[in-house]
Amino acid sequence: MKILLLNQAFHPDVVATGQHATDLALKLVSTGHQVTVVTSRRAYDDSQKQFAPREIWRGIRIIRLGLLGLGKSSRWRRAADFASFFANCLLRTLLLPRADLVIALTSPPLISALGALLVRIKGGKFVFWVMDLNPDEAIAAGWIRADSQIGRLLSAILNFSLRHSDRLIALDRFMAQRLVAKGVPERKIVVIPPWSQDETVVRDPLGREAFRREHRLDGKFVVMYSGNHSPCHPLDTVLDAAYRLGERADIAFCFVGGGSEFRKVRDFARARNLQNIRCIPYQPLDKLSASLSAADLHLVVMGDPFVGIVHPCKVYNIRQLCIPFLYIGPEPSHVTELAPAACFRHGDVDAVVGFLSSSATHPIPASPPANGEFSQQALLTRMVEAIHSTACEKSSPGPIADCHPVGAGKDPVKRSQMSGSPR
Question: What pTM, to 2 d.p., does this model score?
Answer without folding.
Answer: 0.86
